[in-house]
Amino acid sequence: MAVPIELVKELRERTGAGIKECRDILEQVDGSINKAIEILRERGIEAAAKKASREAKEGLIGSYVHHGARVAGLVELNCETDFVARTEDFAALAKDLAQHIVALNPRFISEAEVTDEIVAESGQIRETFVKEQVLLAQPFVKDSSQTIEDKLKQAIAKLGENIVVRRFVRYEIGA
């Protein structure tokens, strides 16, 4: 099936994948954008898993100050090279994460940091606690159909490097 260039452009805009890859996948799925997005998402997860062992020592500090300057967030986002750290996509990801931190106020980066004692003190079941308090498990504030971990995996697939949230802080006046 010959795929219209408009579909290729739309898939590229929505996923950031290469033109040839978009065209090839759309041909495989007979022009279904949703199926193509799902395939690209799965490939991104596989690519992220392969890169997870690489050391990420470069990066930047993302920041967001909410309207009225009463709450702000900072996040240290690391990658493998300063080249990727200087890209607009990486900077936008860092800003999105800082904004998410301001909005949802997570306490932990990953579930590995959460002990059974912490969950017991909260009075919640572990799954609920993790979804509310762990950054990587939270639904992304700008698109609740994906978690922060999903968003990171997409960025890893797009930018071609391991990306790690090293630490974050949220400041609020009077808190």
Automatic annotation (TrEMBL):
Pfam (any one): EF_TS
Main location: cytoplasm
GO terms assigned for molecular function: translation elongation factor activity
UniProt-annotated stretches for the region Involved in Mg(2+) ion dislocation from EF-Tu: 81-84
Entry function: Associates with the EF-Tu.GDP complex and induces the exchange of GDP to GTP. It remains bound to the aminoacyl-tRNA.EF-Tu.GTP complex up to the GTP hydrolysis stage on the ribosome.
Family: Belongs to the EF-Ts family.
Identification of the protein by name: Elongation factor Ts
Organism: Candidatus Viridilinea mediisalina
Record gene name: tsf
